[in-house]
């Protein structure tokens, strides 16, 4: 992947490059960033997509609450050399400890390559995971998943006898093709449990546990995946 990074920005420094990028949220400003490749995928012969994570070049140890910055490039090999077709620099922020999260390459529909970024973190004993979804053919590279809730959460690190409510729920997701739709439906299968007791109950009163096992289907409408059927069961702390 560093070969691709060098084709975009020039000489590398170990596993990253240092380059000037537009500041996130303020395209008029520019700063030096440390850019590290996260994943690449061949989308056609001699054509690849590359996802990279960026951080402020002056900050070598990003903190827990600091997200990574998303950078995406489309490159084509011509005459034995990689050429940049399109680049999207610092277009989104997500994750923690300065890292985006995990990248999964997907097909959003027939002939529609894309990718998902699943990220999260743990704060004061509560863990959350969310997802972003991008169409590589979108000239603006918008997140298609802004109307989808968390894909996983729990409070295992903060669940003791004082808590009236505890939970651990995760969603396993997949795409399902539907005839005559340009974009596939996004389906979640949820599993886990929730526990609760009345708010005014004593600490020695046991919580009642309920299993979570259901599905939800999202369909693309006006540029966003929206709930089409079922219930999104991941608690939002």
Task: Characterise the protein shown here.
- The protein has 237 residues and is mainly beta.
- The protein has a domain at 1-93.
- Helices cover 3% and strands 59% of the residues.
- The protein has 1 helix and 13 strands; from the N terminus they run αβββββββββββββ.
- A hairpin with an 8-residue loop joins strand 10 (165-176) and strand 11.
- The protein is globular and about 70 Å long.
- The model has no long low-confidence stretch (mean pLDDT 95).
Give a brief rundown of this model.
This protein has 237 residues and is mainly beta.
Beginning-to-end CA distance, first to last residue: 37 Å
SS strand fraction? over 45%
Structural class by SSE content: mainly beta
Largest sheet descriptor? 8 strands, antiparallel
Strand order of the biggest β-sheet: 6-7-8-9-10-11-12-13
What integer value in Å does the Rg equal?
21 Å
- Overall geometry comes to globular
Q: List the uncertain runs.
A: none
Count, helices: 1
The helix-strand sequence is HEEEEEEEEEEEEE
Q: Oligomeric status of the shown chains?
A: single chain
Q: How confident overall, as mean pLDDT? A: 95
- Estimate the helix proportion, in percent: under 10%
Number of strands: 13
């Amino acid at each position: 992947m560093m070969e691709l990074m060098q084709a975009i920005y020039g000489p590398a420094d170990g596993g990253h490059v240092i380059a000037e990028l537009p500041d996130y949220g303020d395209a008029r400003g520019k700063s030096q960033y440390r850019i590290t490749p996260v994943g690449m995928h061949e989308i056609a012969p001699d054509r690849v997509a590359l996802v990279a994570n960026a951080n402020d070049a002056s900050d070598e140890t990003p903190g827990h609450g600091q997200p990574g910055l998303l950078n995406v490039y489309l490159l084509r090999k011509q005459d034995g050399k990689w050429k940049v077709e399109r680049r999207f620099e610092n277009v989104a922020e997500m994750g923690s400890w300065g890292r985006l999260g995990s990248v999964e390459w997907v097909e959003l529909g027939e002939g529609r390559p894309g990718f998902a970024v699943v990220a999260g973190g743990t704060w004061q004993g509560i863990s959350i995971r969310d997802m972003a979804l991008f169409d590589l053919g979108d000239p603006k590279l918008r997140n298609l998943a802004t109307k989808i809730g968390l894909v996983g959460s729990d409070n295992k690190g903060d669940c003791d006898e004082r808590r009236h409510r505890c939970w651990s729920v995760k969603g396993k997701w997949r795409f399902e093709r539907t005839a005559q739709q340009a974009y596939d439906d996004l389906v979640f299968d949820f599993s886990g449990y929730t526990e609760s007791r009345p708010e005014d109950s004593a600490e020695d009163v046991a919580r009642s546990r309920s299993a979570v096992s259901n599905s939800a289907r999202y369909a693309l409408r006006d540029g966003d995946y929206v709930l089409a059927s079922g219930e999104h069961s991941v608690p939002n702390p």
